Amino acid sequence: MIFPGISVLAPSAEAAAPGAPAFAFRSADPELVRRVLTETGVVHEPSGPSLVGYVSAWGEAIARWISDFFSARPELAEGIVSAMELIAIGVVATAAVLLIAIVLRRASRSRTGAPPPPDAWSRIPEPVSAALDRDAWRRELDARLSRGDITGALEALWWWLAASLTLGVPVDPSWTTRELLLKARRPELIGTSAALDGLMYGRGVPSSADVRTCLARFEERLA
């Protein structure tokens, strides 16, 4: 690379003289050098390093530093390896314990079956005997309400109503409240029985107060 004004090495005219240097420095013609550079398209400034090469050089330097660091401290490298081995063993042991717990939990669920119903609501009652009289069913109703068995209390209320009516045939547990009243020829109570059917077959969960209110209505109409 040649710049204007710089000295160049040229053959010396006195090279033939004994003891004279073979080459001598001469100042280049600035205009000639500039014209040559312009016509040939020679790059005037050197190119810098690329970004990829810069990052690669940094990566190599960091890797070399890490290697030298652990080479000078072999006990530290061994400690890190041991710690990673312990972490791997802990992860595997934890996964095994969780798997065993899941299997045991599913096995216990299959043995125990369905969960018990809430205290405030019982399962569909089993068929009961209609041999109890009105007073006995009233006591049974109060006992079930005291235990929080709302479904059982509604069943006792239905049988209390059946025992309070005069029927010429045995009571069939499959009858609806409307059928029961029609069998007893008491159609005037059908409007009141709608409240009982709503408590027994409605979507909401009735309370003890709802059952006692329905009982009071029947007692008033049957008095």
Provide structural commentary:
This protein is mainly alpha-helical and 223 residues long. It has eight helices and two strands, in the order E-E-H-H-H-H-H-H-H-H. The longest helix is centred in the middle third of the chain and has 39 residues, at 74-112. The protein is elongated.
Features:
single chain, 3 domains, 223 residues, 2 strands, two-stranded antiparallel ribbon, elongated
Outline the fold blueprint:
Elements: E1 7-11, E2 23-27, H1 30-40, H2 51-72, H3 74-112, H4 134-146, H5 150-164, H6 177-183, H7 190-201, H8 208-222
Antiparallel strand pairs: 1-2
Helix pairs in contact: 4-5, 5-8, 7-8
CA(first)-CA(last) distance? 127 Å
Cα-based radius of gyration, to the nearest Å: 53 Å
Arrangement of strands in the largest sheet: 1-2
Please estimate the helix content: 55-70%
Would you kindly provide a brief summary of this structure?
With 223 residues, the chain is mainly alpha-helical.
